Amino acid sequence: MTFSDGTSADSDEPAGPQPVVAVVGRPNVGKSTLVNRIIGRRQAVVEDVPGVTRDRVPYDAQWNGRRFTVVDTGGWEPDARDRAAAIAAQAEIAVQTADVVVFVVDATIGATDMDEKAVRMLRRSAKPVILVANKADNQAVELEATSLWSLGLGEPHPISALHGRGSGDLLDAILAAMPPAPPIIEGGPRGPRRVALVGRPNVGKSSLLNRVAREERAVVDSVAGTTVDPVDSLVEMDGEIWQFVDTAGLRKRVNQASGTEYYASLRTAGAVEAAEVAVVLLDAAEVISEQDQRVLTQVVEAGRALVIAFNKWDLVDADRRFYLDKEIDRELKRIPWAIRVNISAKTGRAVDKLAPALRRALASWEKRIPTGALNQWLTALTQATPHPVRGGRAPRVLFATQAGVAPPRFVLFTTGPFDAGYQRFVERKLREEFGFEGSPVEVSVRPRK
Ligand code: GDP
Ligand code: GDP
């Protein structure tokens, strides 16, 4: 079992959100010990004192290549008061937001009244429940655990969270109860990075492609182990091979002849779709036009990493520079995160800045924030600046996970719907904290039903 700290982005990234597993049960049955075992490190707090309170804490876990989130809950006591009642409510919330519930019972004690009450709550939730008979440290206890069939939750899984006995089988059962894994998008070693070179006609796309090809003197036709579409170009930049997608038209310059905007936008859509990162060329000598905006929108909506290259910089004088800065503030304010480079395909100015900019954008695009760090930051943020009160209540964040990468997608589990403004605020702060320069970021809210 390996704990993923999120620093390495796997290529087998599932498309859907990470499944959530909630661990519930009476105080002291061994929930924290089990969570520790699942995540493979000692981080959850283990206390000997019954009823010691813990808030719902999510952790990243991984088993057999499947990533998921484990939520540790405090002890579930149905008739609890005050603090303990608050924990019970938290546990119920954890159950409601979970895909799979792991219900832990102490096998050395057997099912108690309190366990029976918990079972009723679990039935109401209609979630798949895995029954765990913990503290089955030896065969004698393991045998006794069979009496837990009486709870009506199916087969009890005897384990010893403390010593590890049975935990592999349990994890297999948890995985089997999860929603089916989305197909693996791409396996094996990754080919060259795919880049779309887009922009309205005459901004200098062909010139730039010719420039990088000539400058680097290394237009290659194939790379060992990869098949490259004949319409693409492989170009070496800064010691790395890059795949410029759908460039056949650029090289043959056929788009000049049939350069209607309709065909231009179709070509852009195709190239962006096939790429991981787009370089949008703008003509720095001319005002940013609606057509430029449409190209930028196509990239952002496709969820691709974005580098904006202001081309024809050789034509920019101090006067133009002044107005361009104002235009950028005004016209590009919805995408302040885009990486910008000022280049000249004609003179070769700063063309060497392109590869580092692409790498930075791609790193953001594939960045994964560990669940622990994400939730710590979010708790602090929402405490400092809570959601405004709506109809007498202020919706709160229960917890958050990163549902995917390329581009980064975050899901906030909340007590109610969020205002669009507050959602944007969270996204802005998320960018400030973790930095996603060059990549769109998606934040969605999943209110508790
Ligand atoms: P929680 O309140 O349900 O989170 O329970 P904890 O994880 O804090 O565990 C309560 C106590 O049970 C601790 O002293 C643990 O060391 C102990 N414990 C947990 N799992 C096992 C186990 O598999 N076998 C034995 N013998 N003790 C365990
Ligand atoms: P495309 O339609 O986007 O492929 O644009 P082209 O590469 O065909 O360039 C359109 C025109 O702009 C041509 O006349 C190029 O010579 C000119 N051009 C391209 N890049 C630059 C540049 O950096 N500076 C200047 N001054 N002209 C450029």
How would you describe what is shown here?
Keywords: GTP-binding, Nucleotide-binding, Repeat, Ribosome biogenesis. This is GTPase Der. Associates with the 50S ribosomal subunit. With about 450 residues, this protein is an alpha/beta fold. It has 3 domains: about 20-175, Rossmann fold (3-Layer(aba) Sandwich); about 195-365, P-loop containing nucleotide triphosphate hydrolases (Rossmann fold, 3-Layer(aba) Sandwich), CATH 3.40.50.300; about 370-445, K homology (KH) domain (GMP Synthetase, Chain A, domain 3), CATH 3.30.300.20. About 35% of the residues lie in helices and about 20% in strands. The chain has helices at about 30-40, 80-95, 115-125, 140-145, 165-175, 205-215, 250, 255, 260-275, 290-300, 320-330, 355-365, 370-385, 420-435; strands spanning about 20-25, 55-65, 65-70, 100-105, 130-135, 155-160, 195-200, 220, 235, 240-245, 275-285, 305-310, 340, 395-405, 410-415, 440-445. The strands form 3 sheets. A 7-stranded mixed β-sheet has the order 8-9-10-7-11-12-13, sandwiched between helices. About 40% of the residues are buried. The model is unreliable at about 1-15, about 45-55, about 215-220 and about 255 (pLDDT under 50). One guanosine-5'-diphosphate binds near residues 25, 46, 134, 160 and 161.
